[in-house]
Amino acid sequence: MNVNRAYLDCNATAPLRPQARAAVLSALDDVGNASSVHAEGRRARALVEAARVKVAALAGASARHVVFTSGATEAINCVVSGRAWKTLMVSAVEHPAVAASVARSSADHIVIPVDGSGRIDVATFATLVDCVLGTEHVLPADALIVVQHANNETGVVQPIDEIANVARDRGIRLMVDAVQSAGRVEIDQRRWGAEYLVLSSHKIGGPQGAGALVATDDAKIDALLVGGGQERGRRAGTENIAAIAGFGAAAGAARSDLADISRMADLRARLEAGLINVAPDAIVIGKDAPRLANTSLIALPRAPAETAVIALDLAGVAASAGAACSSGKTTRSPVLAAMGIHNDIAKCAVRFSLGWATTEDDVSRCIDAWQQVNRIRSGVRDVA
Ligand code: PLP
Fold this sequence. Notes:
Blueprint: E1 6-7, H1 18-28, H2 39-59, E2 66-69, H3 72-80, E3 87-91, H4 96-104, E4 108-112, H5 122-135, E5 143-148, H6 160-170, E6 173-177, H7 189-192, E7 196-200, E8 211-215, H8 241-257, H9 261-278, E9 283-284, E10 295-299, H10 305-314, E11 317-318, E12 320-321, H11 334-338, H12 343-346, E13 349-353, H13 360-383
Pyridoxal-5'-phosphate binds near residues 148, 180 and 326.
């Protein structure tokens, strides 16, 4: 990491953990196809299976249910648009990977609304589900509920235990997007009874290009990739051993970090207090809801997010314009729109997301840089 910069964009991608780096390099230095029976193949197989155990432990799942993929996007595509669901019930604040998969599917699409803090109201949700099952003559087995555990823009955490209870009581399958919550709050696929759960390696300090679909034995999967029958026939293709080994190492480390999550919460509290101190009218979005300890989405009125992000970058701080998780694009955030946040505020939302490598110095640097953003804002107002 560059010590002259503060990297506060871990929800986009987290720095590679040393354990993951070591595992990747060691795997790259070896040879072997995990399907081969010779010693080299068995070594490769052992790496994959060791990683599977660690990823399963992070997800609160059985190792046999972990299917390695190229990332969470692939896992989401496989579940949402890779099967002929009759009805998809999808929260209004899902990641674009979900939204685009839903758009591609021919299933009926029902939006699960969120309140002003970005959370699903469980009673409203239960009524909606009953309505769909009752009046639309949808069989529970043909419907899928898709809910993220925590939001990538706001960090707001959904009441997932209660949501899972509603799904289980009615026999509807549930997919939980745990990409952002992994390693930041406890995830427990078994307790939730979620048939599907998705994870991403690079959000937890593993390498990019690996992810997992956790799918129970009776979760139906129409494999996107067919061929050699790898991953119990659920995802064919020679395994990306180095990336999987790194993912496993990151999963082990991320799980250990959970015990020390208060460190992250303290850093975030210092950051938010410092930013508000510089600009008391700044608005922390989702502040009163349960949030991931690492995420802060903050809007400085009259400071467009793109301008703020550039000013921060020039001052040595990497952050992102609220919605721009994937590409730096600055279209209106559907997440903030679903929360009913006025566009004048939404377009000023800057996301800071901390990670395992974030230090006190990073936070101080960010607070200093924010003064620059605040000054630019004064200029914007004066011109107007
Ligand atoms: N789901 C959420 C909540 C995300 O934040 C992301 C990453 O941007 C994804 C899914 C997609 O993950 P991946 O980059 O592994 O495809």
